[in-house]
Amino acid sequence: MINYRKILELYFEDVSQRTISSSTGHSRNTVSNVVRKAKKLGLEGLDGTMTNPWLESFLFPEKQAIEKGYYPVDWEKVHKELQKKNITLALLHKEYADEAREGGKIPYAYRTFTENYGKYAKKYKLTMPIRRKPGEIMEVDWAGSTLEIKDRSTGEVLPAYVFVATLPYSQLSYVEAFLDMKSANWLTAHIHAFEYFGGIPEALVPDNLKTGVVKALRSESILNEAYRELADYYRTVVVPSRVRKPKDKPSVEGSVGHVSRQIIASLRDYQCFHLEELNQQIFRKLENLNTLDFQKRPGSRKKVFEEEEKSYLQALPQTRYKLTEWKIAKVQLNYHIQVERMYYSVPYDYVRESVDVRLTTDLIEVYFKETRIASHKRLKGEIGQYSTNTDHMPDNHRLYLEHNPENNKKWAESVGPSMTRFVSYILRNNIEKKALNILSTLRNLSTKHAKDDLEQATQTLLDISTNPTVSVLKSILERKKHQQNNKKKDRDNLQTHKEDYGFVRGAKYFGRDSK
Fold this sequence. Notes:
The protein is an alpha+beta fold. It has four domains: 4-124, no CATH class; 137-312, 2-Layer Sandwich (Nucleotidyltransferase, domain 5); 325-393, no CATH class; 403-496, no CATH class. It has helices spanning 4-12, 17-24, 28-40, 52-59, 61-67, 75-82, 89-102, 110-124, 183-197, 225-233, 250-264, 275-291, 301-309, 395-402, 405-415, 417-428, 432-444, 451-464, 470-501; strands at residues 137-150, 157-167, 172-178, 203-205, 213-215, 222-223, 237-238, 325-330, 336-339, 342-345, 354-359, 363-368, 371-377, 386-387. The protein has a five-stranded mixed sheet, sandwiched between helices. A four-stranded antiparallel sheet has the order 8-11-12-13, with no helix packed on it. Strands 9-10-14 form a three-stranded mixed sheet, with no helix packed on it. Helix 1 packs across helix 3 (28-40), helix 4 packs across helix 5 and helix 16 (417-428) crosses helix 18 (451-464). 22% of the residues are buried. One of its GO terms (biological process) is DNA integration. Belongs to the transposase IS21/IS408/IS1162 family.
């Protein structure tokens, strides 16, 4: 018989396989097979119970089957297959038996098959128990089973999704039903759970669902921004469980199963027409579940929580967190983004850029590379509404938008009473579109002439004409400007003429006026 224990003892003492072979008298292939199998099964040490027969059944269980004439079972394969959805030991035994008979071998009976698998799972797949500290974490998840709500008016049956939160130390749970599993309800469920427990744990352990985790990475997962904000507000951290690792959050996994049996299953035939009514039934059964005495330990979930765990939770903030939601939008050519079929402006410099949008109940904030570039009051009601800030528009667009009768009247008042009368005359005697075109030409004059000059010229225009026009006003301004230029030239010429004579002595200087 192979001395498995001696081979492994020497191997764990870092003795070479060549030396082990010489010491035990077994071939190097035998030593290599034993060492390789021990490595594969994660065996890292020996204790007093690990005898040679035990090690043989542990390392090479197929040998026993062959020696007894039974078709060997690949227990590692069975264990992996059993982790898949809807796979049972009965199905795997049937497939194994069919394969054995096709090869002319004898299969194990189903009872022996399950017993041997139980031994394999006990030996090979041990689970390390983790004792959680009070107030350390809160595990959260959606239950796989749903309840139903019936629409009284249409008779339509709507699914109700069940949220479960559990504190692993006390096993106290919180359960609530929602009509969907979107981000808003996910965050609301957390807030209600915090308030039910009366405090905040150090960490939250969710599954890798999209409402909580944008992208699951081995090193550090990328959280949904709204979920991260909620965690920051309540001074806790989010530590997502690893993908396909339900044992990372065993308490909530167990609670989901317990809740499914004690609450969801018991309400499967309960007919209700409102979500509030359904949650009242859930809360009543939840209270019974949390106050029910444990079977294998003294007290109940609620009693253990109140006596041992509640004091370790962080205090709730004075005000409840306001729900937020984050979306990504692209700035359109009209420098607006579309959010829930409403349109909000951003500075035109960001056209065709992707921006982050933060939505609260009453406000929308737009961020570009973590810098806020716009904010708007959230539009409600009829779809397709626009919220436009004129500061976000290019200059030519803003001028076009502001070019209306009201703004033109305000401009005229800033120039003077004569200009106000002239603008009112133009608006009164022309259709709006034509009047605005005329006023556009009129306002261009303000870029070339001072307001005082415009007011004086307009007063002259109104005094001399019963049908004043902008072209006549231009003529008056040009004539006045021409006159001003001529006067300036005359003054310049006179000054130049005086300078040409130099210093002139009078007649008195030469003695002519001495008489």
